[in-house]
From TrEMBL:
Lineage of producing organism: Bacteria, Pseudomonadati, Pseudomonadota, Alphaproteobacteria, Sphingomonadales
One Gene Ontology term of the molecular function aspect: metal ion binding
Protein's recorded name: DNA-3-methyladenine glycosylase I
Pfam families, alphabetized: Adenine_glyco (PF03352)
Binding annotation for Zn(2+): C14, H27, H179, C183
Biological source species: Aurantiacibacter xanthus
Keyword Cytoplasm: no
Example GO BP: base-excision repair
Positions of transmembrane segments: none
Length: 208
């Protein structure tokens, strides 16, 4: 089966986004474009954790609800959440009401604050794991880079950050250009990656 499909505008796109119009917009404007904003990075790691066992479509359609429920994924505000916030979120029908995943986001916000103090930003930490000269098979579920980052995050006390979750995060946040050859967006992503300036920071994955 071809890795591409013809979109409503006649342009070839990655086949996975044919499932729903929501995917097409996400594919064309977000997926694979490099991100260095800590809030967006933390949001995506959190939502990938919520997706575990579910489809990304389920999470994408609820994304605005998640943002409202989790203070716009402001790391400092979430780190201050307590048991009352957990109970509030468990009653919120607009999100995925899973206690373990909710508590993981709160825990991970506290761990993210620690990383910011160490690395200068969450972005500096994340981008230190960008695959360099590494052949990552198209649409693989894991990679050596995602395994390494997952292992390091778990050592630091993060939850719901397995290698598959981290790899999906890397694909989405532009550390890997996993758009299919011939996809109309692949070239745009490659140009964005070429123009991207790596975040300044003190963290080096090679020193972990």
């Amino acid at each position: 089966m071809s890795a591409l499909f013809e979109g409503p505008d006649g342009q070839p796109r990655c086949r996975w986004c044919a499932a729903t119009p929501d995917y097409i917009a996400y594919h064309d404007t977000e997926w694979g474009f490099p991100v260095d904003d800590d809030r967006r990075l933390f949001e995506k790691l959190s939502l990938e954790g919520f997706q575990s066992g579910l489809s990304w479509r389920t999470i994408l359609t609820k994304r605005e609800n998640f943002r409202a429920a989790f203070a716009g994924f402001d790391i400092d505000r979430i780190a201050a959440f307590g048991e009352a916030d957990v109970e509030r979120l468990l009653q919120d029908a607009g999100i995925v009401r899973h206690r373990g995943k909710i508590e993981a986001v709160i825990n991970n916000a506290a761990r993210a604050r620690e990383l910011v103090r160490e690395a200068g930003s969450l972005a500096a930490y994340v981008w230190s794991f960008e695959p360099r000269g590494e052949d990552v098979p198209y649409l693989a579920s894991t990679s050596p880079a995602s395994i390494a980052m997952s292992k390091d995050l778990k050592k630091r006390g993060w939850k719901f950050v397995g290698p598959t979750t981290v790899h999906a995060f890397m694909q989405a946040m532009g550390l890997i250009n996993d758009h299919a050859e011939g996809c109309v967006t692949r070239g745009e992503v490659e140009r964005a990656r070429a123009a991207f300036t790596l975040p300044a920071g003190s963290f080096s994955a090679s020193a972990r």
